Amino acid sequence: MGQTADLVEIVSRGVQLDSAGARALAAELLARPDLDVAFHARVLAVLAQIEYVDANYAEAVVLAEQAVAIARIDGGAEALIYALGARLFASAGTPWAGSVDIADYYEAAWGMRHELENLEPESRMLAGHLLVEGVFSIGRMSEAGELLESLAGLPELRTSENRTLHPYLPFMQLQTARVLFFQGRVNEALPVVEAVLVHANQIGDPLWAMLSRCYLGLIAAHRGDRDAAISIIENVVDAFPDPRGYLGGAVYTLAAYAMLVAGEMERATELAVSGGGGPDLPYSQVADKALTYDLLVTAALSRGDLAEAEEWGIRSLPLAAHPAAGGLVEQALARIDLARGDAGPSAERAEVSAARARLTGRYLDAARSEIFRARALAAAGLRDAAVSGLSALARDGERDGLYVFMRAAIDELRKLGEPVVATPGSGWGMLSERERQIAVLVSAGYSNRVIGESIFLSERTVQSAVSRILSTLGVASRSALPGQVATYRLGEPQDDLPPLTARQREVAELVAAGSSNRAIGEQLGISVKTVEKHIGEILQRWSVSSRTGIASIVATTPESR
Predict the structure, then answer these.
(1) Whole-prediction pTM
(2) What average pLDDT does the segment 168-179 reach?
């Protein structure tokens, strides 16, 4: 193998959780008598990435520092790009004291990004994605997105032996999905995640398949499909009961995040602590620690335990200076301030949290902070300011599929006594889950009477709902509805859908009829958890991310499916 191929092999072993194999290959390369300065630095850079993935964060920093020092001696631009990317990546694993050295590393790395264009395609791909990971890890979403765009068009990474898809490919593809998701571009992230899942399954990599499914659960949760999110996540957790290291912990952190958005607070805290390796969170990198502490603060406050929330808030303080974690720490402290009755300071902290998130392109975090800021402003008696912020969120949420935040904003506006009316053409996100089910059935050609009988509503109620749906989606008649539903569906049915088992088909039909998980379980004589498992398997087989997607396929495909 060539030098870059050797480096790709090290990283591939690492992301497949074969850290021992990765270290052994790195040691073999470092022991070569003809080892030159540039390759020495590059090997240390990718070895730092392996230690990071293994949750050895301090060791990752040491190796990355060595790589930078060696590259700066006489390693050239290529080696320095590798080394600086690794050093930025490693900085995300340990609390950050705002050292000027890290800021210098970022400025140096960002200033060299155009040098990537001069590298051979395989090295450009490896160095570029390492730099993306470094920039992403210090919270700079916009810059990470810009780098990913510059890497578009490179040949798809394949193995040198038989040209099959390379084990490192899902990692690189998921970077794009992660950046899009945390920028709040949920609709754009969905097809990328689905592609990652396909590739992970093709190469038989269960870890990256599970990470992909976690993102599908997150997307479903943010798009307001609570049941689909829970089903997806519980299936992932059942298949991965013992998370270890950074990547294993990341599966559970993402699972916890999805459960939080779905409203399952206690389950979210359980998963977050388990994924982090216990209350001290040794497996979690800094941003994930901050997210978990914010979650634990929220959970404690929901139980009325201010003292416990304050303890978690104190634990989060060492993370406050880290650029990827500071906004989350401010958010946790804002929650505590409001619980103490300090609404003014709480609103100020939430505003700082939102500003820091927007500054680095983390628009999803910004939206969450702005929702909380509005609550604090309302508690401080500043109703007009609260209404203004909430109205903006309710108006803009449709664009990127952030229905959960749009609905949260609408709920807060209603609590403030502010009338909220779905304006014509305001979109899918303004429909309730029941209205979405009716829209799917109307688009499939069913009459109001049949729809009413299938979901246990009167014909008059269905007629009223259809009128609201047509107005909200901005269409004049039922005949125009199928095109609109197709536009908004989370996942289009395929021509060659994988068949379901008889039991799965029964569950799918009841989902399409609008039955809850509990009602399905009672009708079929199975537990709610078994229903959730069946729904998760249906979502995966049919490549959709919501109950509405299941209903769409059931309504438009033959009974034999």
Answers:
(1) 0.72
(2) 81
